[in-house]
Specification:
Blueprint: H1 3-13, H2 19-46, H3 51-71, H4 75-82, H5 84-87, H6 90-103, H7 109-116, H8 121-144
Length: about 150
């Protein structure tokens, strides 16, 4: 098979994606997750919890739901539809940790789960801390010289 035929074949079998449609799906699905979260918060507030406690319980419920969906291998079909709408919020972060824990469980709890649980989430945590530290220091400096 020459290069032209190969490139034509690759072009033929490569899935076509619509950026606008993917963006719309992510927006709607992410919005549904946020709506569910707000519903949980409102439910917890209705039961008499204060705002901080209701927010904490909402976060725990969303994480638990994501871990359960990961455990039952239901995240892949959801992500095929929702895309970044599922992966960007806290549900995606919980999925990345739970998926690694499930994948490396066979290697043991110390060298498998313990060492590899943050394979995907680790860089997110690292760069989140570094970036927030940088911008926090920048904000502090700007406050000290009365620019902000």
């Amino acid at each position: 098979m020459d290069a032209k035929k190969y490139n034509a074949y690759v072009e033929q079998i490569t899935p076509k994606h619509s950026c606008a449609m993917n963006t719309w799906k992510a927006f709607v699905c992410g919005g549904l997750i946020c709506t569910a979260g707000q519903g949980l918060t409102d439910l917890f507030l209705y039961t008499g919890m204060d705002q901080a406690m209701a927010s904490a319980y909402t976060t725990l419920c969303l994480i638990a739901a994501s871990v359960i969906l990961t455990g039952f291998n239901l995240v892949v079909p959801i992500v095929k539809v929702a895309g970044a709408g599922y992966l960007v919020p806290i549900t995606g972060f919980a999925n990345s940790v739970a998926a690694c824990a499930i994948e490396y469980k066979q290697e043991g709890y110390v060298f498998g789960v313990g060492c590899k649980i943050f394979n995907i989430a680790g860089p997110v945590i690292l760069y989140g801390i570094v970036t927030s530290s940088f911008f926090g220091a920048l904000y502090f400096i700007l406050m000290e010289i009365h620019i902000v």
